[in-house]
Amino acid sequence: MLLYKMVTMLIATLCLAIVVNAKVDKQEWWTAKHFAKNKMFPMAAGAYADTPMMQRCIRKVDKDAINLNGFLSAKCRFDEMCYVFTAVLPNHRAIVISFRGTDSGKSQLIDEALGNALFKHEWKYGGHVGRYFKMAFDNLWNSLAIQLTSFLQVQKYRRYELWITGHSLGGALANLAASWASVVFPNNRIRLVTFGAPRVGDLKFRDALERRVKFIYRITHASDPVVRIPWSGYYHAGKELWYKKGMSSTTGFCHGKGNGDCIETCEAPEELNGRPAGCAESAGWKNFISWSFRAKLKELYHYHTEYYQDLTKNSLSKWGELGCP
């Protein structure tokens, strides 16, 4: 009888621990969802604007936000330009780095996919990354490093968090920026959130980034094709908030293993037909295959820009261009 009671108490304790952990996990995900949508999304959208409208976007998050030098720009490759801005959010005690996404439309998107699928370059902080992403980041790097250094020379900013974000190509560059920052910045103060970002590097790159940066979330839409490229040998880092459709405030999301709102294929194994699978990849892959053959490039591109339409009423970039109203 005594043994029976002890076993019963042990089982009850374990069940309680599981319930508590589930609540903690659920709270973590809802907190991340709120942070991504209401804090980081206006920053990512603002990267598509001119300087006055970008400043409206960042002040939507912090009324006292400071942007000192507008945008930094450099050639990604050939005649394609890449952009980034930095800002300080004093009320959130955060420094922001936000990279603009694909700027010249579908042709740049194709260049990114092909340039990265065919070639990888070594990344000095671990693993290999897509050639196009590395070239774009390296070209922006000198100016960005100078600006960040000037921020960190101000004593009060040295204890701030570092928030890094971007959409599409901007999300890929944000991954590289977080990798660099993790070497020179306290890891527990780095937050990386991306929207519709492609895969950036190989397994070694992903593992190195996840070891150094603990707060990594990628927001994905079920029908966004960009989150599925490049294919072979590339991996996503961090946790995924995956929206099934529409991305309204009430849409369900899944986080790796599903939460009841996701279709069962979201629980697919790490590798799906030789490709690394996340929620967006596994949940929509069969539909994507049949759908993509009959879809036009314009339709693909539309899905890629269709994030949080309850806020934007249009595309992410157009919302940013209007100052995130």
Q: Could you characterize the architecture of this molecule?
A:
The chain is α/β, with parallel strands linked by helices and 325 residues long. 47% of the residues lie in helices and 18% in strands. It contains 10 helices and 12 strands. The strands form 3 sheets. It has an 8-stranded mixed β-sheet with strand order 1-2-3-6-7-8-9-10, sandwiched between helices. A two-stranded antiparallel sheet has the order 4-5. Strand 2 (80-89) and strand 3 (94-99) form a beta hairpin. The chain starts with a helix and ends with a helix. One of its GO terms (biological process) is lipid metabolic process. This is Fungal lipase-type domain-containing protein. It holds the Pfam family Lipase_3. Residues 96-230 form the Fungal lipase-type domain.
Got a strand count? 12
Q: What is the overall number of helices?
A: 10
Strand content: 15-25%
User: Rg from C-alpha positions?
Assistant: 20 Å
Show unreliable segments: 2-24, 256-276, 289-295
Categorize the overall geometry.
globular
State the strand order across the main sheet.
1-2-3-6-7-8-9-10
Q: Which structural class best describes the helix and strand composition?
A: alpha/beta
Binned, the helix content reads 40-55%
Average pLDDT, to the nearest integer?
77
Question: N-to-C SSE series?
Answer: HHEEEHEEHEHEHEEEEEHHHH
Intertermini distance: 67 Å
Could you give a short account of the major beta sheet?
Answer: 8 strands, mixed
